[in-house]
Amino acid sequence: MLPEQYCDFLSNLYRKDGAPLQSKNHNGTGLLTYLKHRHGVAWLLGFVIISCICLIGFYFTAFPLAMQIFTAGAGTVVCFGLAAVWRSSKKSMRALLSTLGSAIMLGSGV
Q: What is the dihedral of CA 93, 99, 101, 106, to 10 degrees?
């Protein structure tokens, strides 16, 4: 049996009589599906973003004071700006980005 059929089988087996069938149809429109189809630009962009975050994280104390302040401020502004853009549509991302922006401010001493 395929995994989807097995999940439907278990759902039908353990559901109560009269309860609606809870089958999830996956149409393959997620980030992992996008990356599995070998989109090179997505892989390259992800690698560059993670590399920049690591580079800034490792050498943050070696930066001059003005660059440290700018980096912390830019990270905070980006997080709060994206949270403001997604304030009504993506509530969980808004909360996550607001928390991350507050943590950056707290950690950097702003």
A: -170
